[in-house]
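Hi everyone, sorry if this is the wrong subforum. Our group has a chain we'd like a structural model of before ordering constructs, and none of us has done structure prediction before. Sequence below.
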Amino acid sequence: MKILIIEDEILAAEELARMLTEINSKNIIVKAVASVAESVKWLSNNDAPDVIFMDIHLEDGICFSIFDQIEVKSPVIFTTAYDQYALEAFNANGVAYLLKPIDNDELCDTLKKLNNYVNLNIEKLQKTGEEIIQNKQTAKQKCSTSRIAIRKGDNYTYISVEDVAYFYSDEHYTFVVTHSNERNLINSPLNELEEVLDNDKFFRVSRNCIVNICSIEKISKHITGRLKLKLNPDFGTDLFVARNRMKDFVNWLGIR
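Answer:
Right subforum, don't worry. Here is the predicted structure as tokens:
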């Protein structure tokens, strides 16, 4: 099966490719692209793959704009850390909707369902997607973590989540910063952290930063209309709330 991966997180794309080829050695990853623009260009100039694994939040926008620019002829399996786009996904060639982190058993089941795609109806797919979302939400409520493993040279130790001011990614690495401004390298990517952190206390404001509400010292409106954050300890560079997260961020803060 020829597979196109549309995913803006390099490590997530690599992990998905590994899982797919491990499940079936005949699965071929024809390409991995990271943006709406790249996706439109590739799909316009290449034969349609057998299936597309598509992340919803890409580096230059929401993936649904791809469907506004080009006819997508392949079935699509959406992968995302957000469940609010489920029904919209099923209206856009969606045959499945997998919430991150992707579970290997769910991925196997999805690939089996894909083989019977022609015989499946949208109503059944929507029901399946809603069940996956409900199961993921239930699991997420049960797995909120209270500690984070950090690397100290060749050794590991733990810090309490209560001591964390924010997490951020830089290149292919993820760091944790404590309220006392101690910075340490950790193994977990932001996507995984987002799944297990307490949503009342932590919010992913951008692709590269998850903040503790207690670390937000000041919020100001930038000339571009975006929200600019001042954190304590200082983030080091300008930190803006991503445009597609601003509404959720304001709701998270409880601002009406």
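For your construct planning: The CA atoms of residues 31 and 177 lie 35 Å apart. The helical segments are 10-23, 36-45, 64-69, 86-90, 104-115, 122-142, 190-196, 246-253.
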